[in-house]
Task: structure prediction
Amino acid sequence: MIDWLKRDPKTEAEIVIGDLRLPVVIRRLPHARRMTLRLAPDGSEVRISMPRWGRTAEALAFVRSRAGWLAQQHAALPREDPPRSGGTIAYRGERLAIDHSPAAPRSPRLAAGAVRLGGPEESLPGRLKRWLEREARRLLAEDLAHYCRLAGKDMPRLSLTSARRRWGSCAADGAIRINWRLVMAPDHVRRSVVAHEVAHLVHFDHSPRFHALLAEIFEGDLAAANLWLKREGPALYRTFG
Result:
């Protein structure tokens, strides 16, 4: 059964599929020649891209016609798998063994191929998450300083985000926000997102000049980094939801 709850009949709606209630986000793009539909990597929303001349009613009808496909896509998303003693956790593209001993120090510490920590087992997920967030802030600050030097820009304010819709953003005032979960991805993937946002400090668009600068300051393979995020990014939400 599908139901629509209109918030703004011109731009927004929600689709309900079974127990799911997902917002529909419509983007009109100047260069789009056809309508495309996809589910957000974390399953939080349905995204429609369409030409500027496209009609909202047509977009909503398209989503409605693809309800079965959307339900299948959502069902296939990775489900939350909290860290536990004896399990593993992703860190900088590797799987670290979780070496937990109640008598060991509570604060996580890196060891060869493992992260070691003590304290109560029930608080283990929260302490590992806080440790990853601290590591993310440290690494992202280093990345940001590096790419700002290359781009000839002062280092802006950095904030970590838990957004389920994007990996990074650059505000009009220059503030940069990066998803802390990228600390679990390979280094080149995390750094590609930071480089992308730094390039926006110079070119606040996706013009050829923006892409030229990004290719100049980023030392890795942008296509490979983007492909990794597309294929593996949703799994970064399994550990902590």
